[in-house]
């Protein structure tokens, strides 16, 4: 652990680790251990719906007059949305490949 002190506040930070692979699921999505595939897809769909609503509000100009912090929060929300869409695309691609492999193996 690394200790960082600022004023009277001491914070323990984890040791730096190796860079993470890009293909990891976004951290904004809930942890899904023990969940069924259908539940995972449902949560992912909910995250994508929220992102689409956020993008729609931003495109309509409802975010005018925002301060820097609010703009950064908007940017983070749109980033989470793009990560969720990317994850959904990967799931569809891998599922399609699995079905294709299964059908080829059975002579279909």
Topology, please?
Elements: E1 2-6, E2 9-13, H1 37-59, H2 68-105
Antiparallel strand pairs: 1-2
Strand content: 5-15%
Protein structure class:
mainly alpha
* Rg calc: 20 Å
N-to-C SSE string, H for helix and E for strand: EEHH
Number of helices: 2
Q: Detail the poorly predicted runs.
A: 18-23
What's the N-to-C terminus distance? 55 Å
Considering DSSP H and I runs of 4 or more, what fraction of the residues is helical?
55-70%
Number of strands: 2
What value does the average pLDDT take?
Answer: 78
Sheet with the most strands: spatial strand order? 1-2
Largest sheet: 2 strands, antiparallel
Q: Given the C-alpha coordinates, what overall shape results?
A: elongated
Short note summarizing the structure:
The chain has helices at residues 37-59, 68-105; strands at residues 2-6, 9-13.
Structure notes:
This protein is mainly alpha-helical. The chain has a domain at 36-108. Helix content is 56%, strand content 9%. It has helices at 37-59, 68-105; strands spanning 2-6, 9-13. A hairpin with a 2-residue loop joins strand 1 (2-6) and strand 2 (9-13). Helix 1 (37-59) crosses helix 2. The longest helix is centred in the last third of the chain and has 38 residues, at 68-105. The chain is elongated and about 60 Å long. The protein starts with a strand and ends with a helix.
What are its keywords?
2 helices, 2 strands, two-stranded antiparallel sheet, mainly alpha, elongated, 108 residues
